[in-house]
Write a structure and sequence with these properties.
Mean pLDDT: 84
Shape: globular
Number of helices: 6
Strand content: under 5%
Distance between the termini: 38 Å
Number of strands: 0
Order of helices and strands: HHHHHH
Helix content: over 70%
Structural class: mainly alpha
Amino acid sequence: MAQYFHINIQYRSKQRQLLNAILALITGVLTLSYPGFLYLIAGGYLMALGLLMIYFRFPPVIAALPIITGIVIFILPNLIPYTFAAFLGFFGLILLMALQFSIMGFLTLIIAVLIVMNPDSVALFIAIFLLLYGVSNLIKIIQGRNKGMRISG
């Protein structure tokens, strides 16, 4: 006799998802507008993302990753392509495995590989990732609101 259990763990509150989307969109626009300040923008984004994760009680290992990556970017700005690509690689794996956001997980991994292959275009790839991530979070928020407003009849 087989028994099946389904456990659904919801890490994403709507407030966290909205703050994450706004942070990603603002950072993506800033990255496109001021690519010369990439190390400040990317490092600041990663620090803010880590603080958001701490505030919303993510596991400490996951919350520490963006903070450590941000600190490395501030200290060694020449390593931005590789540190941000490493962060995106790990983040993409988390999206694929834990949060089941597979399309964005694959895109994140692809962008990480593109950054490593072409480090001169790191600002553009980071902006693309941030804008895609922000827009996808906004779409999920809107879809969640529309599910609650359905009228059956």
